[in-house]
Amino acid sequence: MSSTTVVDHSVKQRRETFTQIFWRRFKRNRLAMFGLSVLLVLYVVAIFAPWLAPYDPNEINLRNKLEPPSAEHVLGTDLYGRDVLSRLIHGSRISLSVGFVSVGISITVGTLLGAIAGYYGGAVDNIIMRAVDVVISFPVLFLILTVVAVIGTSIFNIMLVIGLTSWTGTARLVRGEFLSLRERDFTEAARALGADDVRIIFSHILPNAMAPIIVAATLGVAYAILVESALSYLGLGVQPPTASWGNMLYEGQNYFRKAWWIAFFPGLAIFMTVLAFNMLGDGLRDALDPRLKQ
């Protein structure tokens, strides 16, 4: 009876899918689950912002300016009498959109160039890696500031600039994975069966390199949100009266002693969002690592 139980248990383990293994590992990480919960709430708030915000985020009412948190204005009002909570809710749309779109650009560029460099090696690898070195040699924030100042400060330009200046880490990561995976038996088998390079790269090697790419993308969103907030704080990001967490910080910096809530709540939102993405990224890395025990 006991031997049958052992056999049934081993069969059940063999039948367990990768998704089930991943989820079992991931949900044991309480910090990662907390980060995921925070992000789910943020995205629900961002999606339903027009219905959740109690006031028009751009409605000016100078009679109510610099009001502290109260029953009427839960997070107070700013120097123009605008409701801070409403602007915070609408600002989440900007920050999260910039994070995802810019990371989508950087992951696409970095994955493509890293895959080509790692798969072909030789002169192709040298050219791409020297390009990576050139981009990395520039101070990223100053490079972004310069480019944004030249091409303009629209939200699309900000997404594009952040995406095109943050692909280098992904390229190096993917290159390292491809250098290892291109020598594996399944790659040699695909070549022996007559598969061309494009098929081998995208159908055989890339799926096996997705785990670190997913983790890099998660952490990249947090970085993009920080950069957008910094640009908006410096006046080169999202332009008023459109609400973003960065320009809300900028508007409240001179009133911190008199009206602390104007800058405190956007700063707290940035902190919690970046922390949640970092927790999620760490949890994904641990859950996707095949070297860890199940």
Fourth-level CATH superfamily = MetI-like
CATH topology: MetI-like fold
By DSSP, the count of extended strands is 0
Number of helices, counting only DSSP H or I runs of 4 residues or more:
14
CATH class group: Mainly Alpha
CATH architecture: Orthogonal Bundle
Query: Can you tell me the number of structural domains?
Result: 1
Give an account of the 3D structure:
This protein has one domain (29-53, 82-288): MetI-like fold (Orthogonal Bundle). Helix content is 72%, strand content 0%. It has helices at 2-15, 18-27, 30-47, 49-52, 84-120, 122-137, 140-151, 155-165, 168-181, 185-192, 197-205, 210-233, 245-252, 261-288. Helix 3 (30-47) packs across helix 5, helix 3 (30-47) crosses helix 14 (261-288) and helix 12 runs parallel beside helix 13 (245-252). The chain is elongated. The two termini are 26 Å apart.
Which labels suit this protein?
single chain, 294 residues, mainly alpha, MetI-like fold, 14 helices, 72% helix, elongated, disordered N terminus
